[in-house]
Amino acid sequence: MVIDLGSQKLMQQVTANFLNNPQYYMYPPGTATVWISNDAMNYTKVGSLDSDNPGAELCTCKRYVTLKAPIQARYVKLIVAGGAWIFVDEIEVRI
Q: Which residue in 95, 82, 68, 90 sits closest to 1, CA to CA?
């Protein structure tokens, strides 16, 4: 998924909410990485969303990456992998 911020913005954190519902094979991603770009063609990896195992409980799992220093970019790409079904309901780019 790619988010276009409309213009270059100074960002500090990226968060995403994932559904965990093992009864229906819905799990948070095994990996989730955040990439940024100013031209939508050349991306640089800036971090990975933290991960933990929420177990068998039905819940929304919030994952985040806080940048060591604010970074300026226009495009934010989130790449997720793992799990039978991955449901994300909100992605935030904190400016």
A: 90
Mean predicted lDDT score pLDDT of the chain: 89
Rounded (10°) CA dihedral 68, 73, 74, 76? -40
The pLDDT of 23-30, averaged and rounded, is: 87
* Residues ≥6 apart with Cβ < 8 Å to 76: 2, 3, 5, 11, 14, 34, 35, 36, 93
Instruction: Report d(CA 31, CA 79) in Å as an integer.
Output: 8
pTM exceeds 0.85, yes or no: yes
SS3 for 12-72 is EEEEEEEEEEHHHCECCCCEEEEEEECCCCCCEEEEECCCCCCCCCCEEEEEEEEEEEEEE
